[in-house]
Amino acid sequence: MRIELRDIRKYFGPVKANDGISLVLEGGRIYGLLGENGAGKSTLMKILSGYQPPDSGDILFDDQVQNFSSPKVALGKGVGMLYQDPLDVPPFTVNDNYLLGRDNRVVLDYKSAIQELQEMTSRFSFELDLQSNIEDLSLGERQQLELARLLVGGAQVLILDEPTTGISAEQKDVLFDSIRKLAFEEGKTVILVSHKLEEVQELCGEGMVLQKGKLVGKTELPCPNEKLVEMMFGQVPERGERTEFPLGQPVLGLVDLHVTTYRLSIRDVDLTLQQGEVFGLAGLEGSGQRILLQACAGLLHPDHGKILLSGQDVTGLQYHRMQDKGVGYAAAGRLEEGLIEGLTLAEHVELAKPKHRFFIDRSQLNTTTESKIDQFQIVGRPDSTADELSGGNQQRLLFALLREKLKLILLEHPTRGLDVRSSNWIWDQLYQRREDGTAILFMSADLDEIFERSDRIAVFSGGVMSRVLETKNTSVDEIGHLIGGQA
Amino acid sequence: MNANRWIRWVWPAVPIAGALVVTSLLLFFFGAAPLEAFQAMYDGAFGDQAKTLSVLAFWVPLLLAGTGLLVTFKAGLWNIGIEGQIVMGAIAASWVALRMEAPSAVLITVEILAAMLAGALWAALSAVLKTRGNVHEIFSGLALNSIAIIFTNYLISGPWQPPEGGTFRGTAPFQPGALLPLYENSRFSPLSLLLAAIAFTLVVIALRGTFWGLKLKAIGQNLRSAFLLGVSSEREMILAMMLCGALAGLGGAVRTLSWFDSLRQSISGGIGFMALLVVMLANYRMFLVPPIALFFSAVLSGSITLQLRTQLHSSLGGILTELMVLFVLLFGDWKKLGVFRKKDDDG
User: CA-to-CA distance for A134 and B183, rounded, in angstroms?
Assistant: First the structure.
């Protein structure tokens, strides 16, 4: 089946998630869809799978215009999407789950269902025990079940959203083999959405790169990683002039740090940051940068290894103790992690103060808030709520809430979604903090930002931190190699 | 946009009107005249002084429980266990009333403090199960409600049974000095209303004007962000639950020391659950809680007269109040209804 997307547009308020994307997908091929977070991949795939309608633009199957009102309608037309988190129902058996998505009759036809499932699983050499409970299955096995369900549902186009997150290498091979079989032997169209360049290189015949809602490049695969990185992040300009700042005493010391989360672990991190230093963490989303930042903030605790703050061992201290010791943390999700919907700016300022009185002095609070609003150039009043602010102003508020005289500031995507002027302004503010001897450790998906702002850079790939690079002695090529997971 | 503003002002009346219409339809269905029925209800609640005093006596514990729930709702907690906290307060007050001998003023003070402490501890159990054991407060609350009621039954049929022999009805009447001073011949104690008014005022001040109230608001809106801003949620959650429990326990003491004169099997009579409905109907707006609680107790007192005069069952009052809550939950927030959403997107 030939699929054509014509000038697909989808806006969320001022955000152009998809800004006129046109694509042609042929049957029997495997496509890789690439792009940094927020580039519009998920939105586009949700539109193709009927999860949400586009604002404008057409979807054509074999030159016929389609209108999908729901994922079910889309599956009826042959589009199936395998989500990152399987949509099965845990307390049921494999068989029950399979029937749940299929059988619309009152009396369930177990016999033929088992037969269908067995045929399907043996065809792709999946090893599924049909009577076991979903809870006992690994993520990879649940994925196989989901895939079988889509195929029996008649999927001709398969969309796989980050399918290898959290599954074993062996299961990955089985999955990739079955994908190849589906495409090359059965002529199905497969779209792989992934952050992992190696996988895309391994599996796909053609790569398509989205950036800020637009299709910015197509290439035959495999190709050099640097080419993909360049398409994803844009041309990285030469480093601009930045005032050198004399570095002081060591502030943060990480010794042989290991941190485990259920998704990913980081290992063997050794790092020292000095007063006034700006250190950038590059890498694809979910490679371990955020885990490192959260460990330094006291939000995650290391399995072993040490965290030193100005020479003092602070390993295992809780976040609030770390705050008191002079560590500030600003997460990426503004209204999820940092700001509170429905609370006013003044209330935020009051909450973030290090010391409090029993009664709130409203008039004094208003004065303090006014001066913060002035200082951080926030477009809002003390009694505006955080959700009334625009994204850029929310970001400014988040910075306004960081305490004064910090030793260490940890930032996730400090300027994501901001225009150039606002980004520059935020970094000017951060540079001023170096005068207090503050060190800054930040992660960003924007390579420009990392190159322009950091003194030193490290790259994360699959939980492993690369060697530390001096920004002035490194190049896009080198970073590209490291992001792709090659040493 | 004038239409929008107009709708916003009038909207709170919609669920109430809806409930009245549905109740009227029910009455028609059973062949009764709605107006006559509502008149009977009104007469039953405010027909004479004794009836009005009875409404007030029922109002006070309901108001205390509702005031406590304002605190827990602010912190985003569903304190379903309030019923059990009322019962434990009543038990503690009864224990003092049965076992202690002292001048009336001392006795009443100790009873009230014991009741508040018992309610607070019972609530703390729910809170700690939530923060440490990851048990949702709704489930622990339901379990603790049952335990409290079973404990009452054990006490009145076992160790505290009246000397003339155990029944499941209650303990023997307390010594007169242990009871709250009543207004004339009613079950209404002005002292209890004074305490409730103080409690309500203090809670309003705490939630509006203190840093603690702001922390509760932050926790209730977004636990994660509140934590990142520096609010330790565990302590505040436990304190919020304990404050609510203390007020509920006080309500329990008022029930046992003025509405009754002994510890009874159904000492709370569902006041805790009713208070949840009151606060939901008030849509968490603090100053609506006292009048709505008063309305509830009027409807419930009125429905007894309704039954006597029209042969309609007194549960009609319950149907009316609960329909209102249902309508508030369904239509309370007109913005969430699709009806007024703009259709012309290209406009």
Answer: 65
